[in-house]
Amino acid sequence: MENTEQTLNFEHLTTLNVSIENHIAHIQLCRPEQLNSMIPAFWSELPEVVQAIDFYSAARVIVISSTGKHFSAGMDLSVFAQMAEDFRGEPARRAEKMRRSVLQLQDSFNALEQSRIPVLAAVHGGVIGGAVDMICAADSRYCTEDAFFTIKETEIGMTADVGTLQRLPHLIPQGLVRELAYTGRNWSAKEALSQGFVNQVFEDQQSMLKAVFVIAQTIAMHSPMAVAGCKEMLNYSRDHSVQDSLNYMATWQAGMFQLPDIQESMKAAKEQRLPEYKALLQMHPMMKTK
């Protein structure tokens, strides 16, 4: 953590535990008795934490994991109960309010994608409904042998609406996405690995977290500027043509390609030591929303 101890305070959180050490932020879902279902507080706490870590450059990698038997049972029934209250009143205004509600839920997971910091999801047990939406917004996914994934929304009579259907087709074949969405069947860790949805499968959570933190530490050793540039370019290229992406890359380099980190890398190699890079600058206070 880089001189932000007095700024960040996560003691008020009710759905997440957060720790930051060696430039790695560990966010844990912490309601195991309730299968880490996503109650209303979760949808504001997750983006609050991710945006605060990014805003203050408090870490260089974020690892998301969970506690208990399952990663998450997805959206809690209390959220559906709240949304049911929106189905009252004049149809146009009711629909406009509903649309804004869905956009707010989407923004909770958009925060993972929009952060300058790579996000690694380490999941176990059931990854259901909204939990699939969430990890689709991560940069990389890892799971245990007992993990299974379910686009649960179809089974309960609705269309998944906070990211799965938009991001998953960029991660696995279209035909498989459609099968999973139409049927709502469980998707095993083995199948997820074979289709490239997860990077690796581990015997248990302990071995998974150990390995994922090694990956996170490797990322954290690199220039934060270079890593942030990689994430920006990869996200942009997913949504644009090759030519547009190349043009954006050239424009990015015109401003972001500077020598200090390169010189530090070369000096460290010559001196046979690990490079020491400066953190990304904190965002301007006017940009802080919470």
TrEMBL record:
UniProt protein name: Crotonase/enoyl-CoA hydratase family protein
Species, as recorded: Aliiglaciecola litoralis
Native organism taxonomy: Bacteria, Pseudomonadati, Pseudomonadota, Gammaproteobacteria, Alteromonadales
Family designation: Belongs to the enoyl-CoA hydratase/isomerase family.
Matching InterPro entries: ClpP/crotonase-like_dom_sf (IPR029045), Ech1-like (IPR045002), Enoyl-CoA_hydra/iso (IPR001753), Enoyl-CoA_hydra_C (IPR014748)
